[in-house]
Amino acid sequence: MIQINTRFLKGMLSQQDVETILQQSSECAKRLEEKTGLGNDFLGWVDLPSTIKTTQLEDIQATARQIQNHSEYLVVVGIGGSYLGARAIIEANQAFFPTQGVKILYAGHHLDADYHAELLEFLQDKDFSINVISKSGTTTEPALAFRSLLKLMQKKYGSDKLAERIFSTTDAQKGALKKLSDEYNLKTFTIPDDVGGRYSVLTPVGLLPIAAAGISIDEFVTGAKAMRQTVLTQPKESNPALLYASYRNALYQSGKKIEILVNYNPRLFYLSEWWKQLYGESEGKQQKGIFPASVSFTSDLHSMGQYIQDVERILFESVLQVQQPQKDFTIEPVQGDPDGLNYIAGKTLSYVNERAGAGTGLAHYEGGVPALEIEIPKISPHSCGELVYFYEYACGVSGYLLQVNPFDQPGVEAYKKNMFALLGKKGFEQAGKEVEAKLKNLSG
Ligand code: PA5
Q1: Is the peptide bond before 298 cis (omega within 30 degrees of 0)?
Q2: Strands 166-170 and 128-134, how do they pair?
Q3: Is 416 a catalytic residue?
Q4: Is there a catalytic annotation at residue 19?
Q5: Model pTM score
Q6: Whose CA is nearest to atom 3 of ligand 1?
Q7: What is the pLDDT of residues 288-341, one digit of tens each?
Q8: How far is CA 145 from the centre of its chain?
Q9: Cα–Cα 20 to 30 A to 162, which of 124, 207, 278, 406?
Q10: Which phi and psi angles does 266 have, rounded to 5°?
């Protein structure tokens, strides 16, 4: 169960302001539930935890087993909402130094030539499968990566074996990936029309790679279901999603324009990446929206600590506090105390990490950086399911509080238009000349 701790907010916000926003949050949640708010044709994610059928989960599990039987590696090809959720859950739950099971590699999440060329070289003598994921089926980055991976696979295994090793996740009807999947007779999982990319972790987009990595999707979905029940049944004063949305918006209104998601557990690094996309793409519109940033402490205390402590007071933190590690070890006393650490001998490393967190929170609070703490008992597929749904729900509410549509991303098109123009894509010839001229002007 997720708890919100507000000790490092004391005195930073007026109680009256928080209560007013909490009441508004509750009205925004009503709009999500009744599907009467902006972007209401993209609210399929709200009911996903309870609408996923056992047969769907079994189908995904069966495919995951097929991948595990065939392959040492699974290459997940996708970008943005088509890979970040899976990566967040996989990296949170898998061993740091995995020695068994299918290893997950990623492709098509950027355009770096070195990375993709090395990946192709690396895979030449490895047994691998591919899960290519794109809702639109036309996104350039994953489409380019898939083109070369498909070629490698054809060469390595032969065209008649493609359907055993390539699985696609895309729209039910449209897009180039759907066409390709049909042409090669690939097993294809569908992304529901009313679920946008960054809200799709609880569809096959997230579930297939997570299952292939050997992580329990049953527990993950059960966690999401539990959080669905929590947001539905808890009164607003103890509803974690409404509280989170309300506090962060109260802070925003008080001039804190940047939210830093802090973790003290490096396995949560990609959860922050997923969260940044979820909140950034959902809220950053019409010249509004909190800037979502993230740090991993204590590592980043040695790089960003100074900035956070002393910069202009435009920041607040939301800290993911994990109460129990999966593993721990006790610090041994050493005779003569050569490194001066005997004062913590007998304590566990997780205790030291917790004390570092408490000390940092207090230092930041006293320096004028408020923090709200999001406490989870431990990192597990279940708690990740709770977290995913918690953040999605709070994001929907928060977007409505800001009076933007949290389910579209019109701003993403601007860069694509220029890129297509510069690459000479059909239909962009005139735009190409204009963009080249503008660039020349800027350099001249
Ligand atoms: O949230 C979104 O909709 C986007 O971030 C998409 O997930 C991302 O652009 C990838 O799109 P697609 O799945 O169509 O390839």
Answers
A1: yes
A2: parallel
A3: yes
A4: no
A5: 0.96
A6: 197
A7: 999 999 999 999 999 999 999 999 999 999 999 999 999 999 999 999 999 999
A8: 21
A9: 207
A10: -60, -20
